[in-house]
């Protein structure tokens, strides 16, 4: 698989109400702006992104989607443990 196909990232953002949002992107800066101005996920309508807490690199579209789904199934405590883990590329 070429490097360009493996440019997807999985991320976790803390929102203004302290909830955690998990998503995928190929451009974190652009995605952050979309979340901030309300054109991204519906989750951010009525709340703002506060801080990028977790970033995982080197995924293709499929593996990023699978990883996103797996993270979304975790409890808040499990997500916080993931954020504190060596897997975090921030």
Helix content: 25-40%
What name goes with the CATH superfamily? GIY-YIG endonuclease
Poorly predicted runs are none
Q: What's the rounded overall pLDDT mean?
A: 93
CATH domain class name:
Alpha Beta
Category from helices, strands and their pairing: alpha+beta
Number of strands: 3
In DSSP terms, counting alpha (H) and pi (I) runs of 4 or more, how many helices? Answer: 3
Label the overall shape. Answer: globular
Number of domains: 1
| CATH architecture heading | 3-Layer(aba) Sandwich
Radius of gyration equals: 13 Å
Q: How do the strands line up in the largest sheet?
A: 2-1-3
In angstroms, what separates the terminal alpha carbons?
24 Å
Q: Say what the CATH topology is.
A: GIY-YIG endonuclease
3D architecture notes:
- With 90 residues, the protein is of the alpha+beta class.
- The chain has a single domain (3-83), classed as GIY-YIG endonuclease (3-Layer(aba) Sandwich).
- It contains three helices and three strands; from the N terminus they run ββαβαα.
- It has helices at 28-37, 61-72, 76-83; strands at residues 8-15, 20-25, 49-59.
- It has a three-stranded antiparallel sheet with strand order 2-1-3, with helices on both faces.
- The two termini are 24 Å apart.
- The relative contact order is 0.23.
- The mean pLDDT is 93.
